[in-house]
Amino acid sequence: MNRIKAKYLIETPFPLDQAAEVLAGEQSSGTFVPVPGETASLKERFAAQVTSIEALDTVTTPSLPGAASNGESYRRALIEVSWSVENVGFNLSTLVSTLQGNLYELPQFTGLKLMDIDFPEDFGSHYKGPAFGIKGCRELTGVGKGRPLIGTIIKPSIGLAPEQTAETVARLAAAGIDFVKDDELMASPANSPFEKRVEAVMKVIHAHADKTGKMIMYAFNISDEWEAMQRNYDKILEFGGNTAMISINSVGLAATKALCDRRQLVIHAHRNGWGMLNRHPLLGMDFRAYQKLWRLAGVDQIHVNGIRNKFWESDDSVVASIGACFEPVLGGFEALPVISSGQWGGQAFETFRRTRSTDFLYLAGGGIMAHPMGPEGGVVALKQSWEAAVNGLSIEEAASSYAEFGQSVKKFAKIHHGS
Amino acid sequence: MNRIKAKYLIETPFPLDQAAEVLAGEQSSGTFVPVPGETASLKERFAAQVTSIEALDTVTTPSLPGAASNGESYRRALIEVSWSVENVGFNLSTLVSTLQGNLYELPQFTGLKLMDIDFPEDFGSHYKGPAFGIKGCRELTGVGKGRPLIGTIIKPSIGLAPEQTAETVARLAAAGIDFVKDDELMASPANSPFEKRVEAVMKVIHAHADKTGKMIMYAFNISDEWEAMQRNYDKILEFGGNTAMISINSVGLAATKALCDRRQLVIHAHRNGWGMLNRHPLLGMDFRAYQKLWRLAGVDQIHVNGIRNKFWESDDSVVASIGACFEPVLGGFEALPVISSGQWGGQAFETFRRTRSTDFLYLAGGGIMAHPMGPEGGVVALKQSWEAAVNGLSIEEAASSYAEFGQSVKKFAKIHHGS
């Protein structure tokens, strides 16, 4: 069927079928009294349909305030709702308003989270998705199957002048890094105007490529207002770069997709602000739905956090996010999961054990830059950690087999494990 | 001082000053270990500063999961943090990443809400803000001071063909309406392509203007992907319309601001999806901060919900939102608050009593379209309700003085009051 389907986790003081119908009504015909012109045939064509209701547990305390009825119990369920593709057409902004519009405001719900989206088949022929994806990112960096792309974030996040950033990049390139990125706080600050930074950084990247044949991928943070973002995109092209980073939540869907549509640069999607949409278990959206939308829009790389991260998210949740990225959407739309946050290589073992994959961009910030043997040691140690993980070594075995990784364990393991 | 300031409501198991410093660190230098290059002078220039901490209550249950430490108590506080404008420049996307980026992910917090933003003075000379604002909207519709602009939403939300929409508009125009809008679910569905709708609707609007001298404001929902939004904007201009509606959360900041920057059409900002950002008391952002950002971006009209709305929000919260819109930002940036959701005129009395203002776009959907005397009666009744409210009549007095409003009370008051 050519219908858009969405799954929601709901919590409601009302009977489940009644609450589900309110959601479907609000998101397709929605007013508080019937109005002239609302005919049966029109309703049949455009009405949202509740296609399944799977009851879960019942709780006694509402998860969110504002219930229309203060019952003694609040029922939870997974429900599926569908809309004709005719309601929306090829219009991702209106798709979002349809799937996630006023429904969070409904007092019939004390919890509501968009868990999953299924796009209609039509979308597969209309949307092009990631221009590079996993395969393209491997080709651009020359990193074959068998290990992740190893990357880092320029730190301090903000404050370095273009020449300082370029020096750091040169050092990282010499150490064998595959990927470097700006921090999301670093766009075009007073002492590092975007163009100057691109010029300085690309100069050392080209010098390194000329010498070694290896082209580093540098994700310049183009996040800005629309005109500036286009200029920034052009600047990267002009200086021979191949990747742009976008803070997708801050920039928004329409502008991000428009830049993905240019298909000349790899788009590195940074999800900062994501906690606001996801941290509450019964509000917002699940990463499974989120990443589908952005892959459809065309991002090539998307952040998934990491095992034993410095943020609040559990390892199980991170592993589920990675799994979601690896599932084809409409038969394809592959994007490279970006693992980051407090990573230093010690987590490579658990990451590989739970995903059996190396199709990652694996980012370490302090884990590389603050390595006891300098960034050079940090990059080598990360590659060692993944080699060891893939070869089935334990972290202890790897620490004694590899000098650089051994130093990482000494310095970073205690920060994470308190030992 | 030329600094960006932000207020947050926080909840943390850690000492307040320590938690506040983590937030400031993450949002300006942020990594889990010190790195080379992070000098003292660089820190002084670019570091975020915690400028005040006001302790509130302490609770025993964390509001959000994922705390780094499972203490026995969780302290709440209002804190203020500031950044040099040098970090961000004139870059609203990066401003959002700075004020609302990774900080929601921090396990040092079990609650975090952005409550307010103060822009540095520089922003006042760079950003132009709303091109029309309250004054411009009154001028375009010819509605002088003393009553709100009265408007409605075409219902059913989705499904009407362009000719049906145009017929409805003609009828509403004849009844004396000031403003009509598409529903947020209605962009360019299969049976009402955007251009056809603009053409059909503008034809009746021009016919009405030719006859009466009164130009109805119709907010066409241009929300779409970027290229389509620009085309839609141009189509409205081409057919002589004056207003475009944007689902700001779905479209995003960069594209919305780019369209505001064209300054040829009034921009009606629909906040659908807002519940996701605000419904939890300790997650996301307060409307006070939200509306400032969008006014700076240049929206002319912004939704604030309404008294006794059909959504979850309390009247106090709605009144606070209206008050926030009326406060100047950097000395101006006036936008017209849009009151809607379950409105039928009965709420005019309380709205006026609590705000002492008529500077609103007052929207009623079913309240107009389902009036017992038809939309004609609905529009008249709404004007009567505001006249009565401003003149200090009670709702009962108004119901017996005005025939049309009397009918509204009979039909709609019981829906809302269950009497």
UniProtKB/TrEMBL annotation, chains A, B:
What cofactor requirement does the entry state? Mg(2+)
What region holds the Ribulose bisphosphate carboxylase large subunit C-terminal domain?
145-410
Q: Which UniProt keywords apply?
A: Magnesium, Metal-binding
What sequence ranges are listed for the domain Ribulose bisphosphate carboxylase large subunit ferrodoxin-like N-terminal?
16-122
Tell me, what's a Pfam family for it?
Answer: RuBisCO_large_N
Which positions, given as ranges, span the membrane?
Answer: none
Superkingdom of origin organism: Bacteria
Signal peptide as annotated in the record = none
Report the sequence similarity comment from the record.
Answer: Belongs to the RuBisCO large chain family.
Q: What is this protein called?
A: Ribulose-bisphosphate carboxylase large subunit family protein
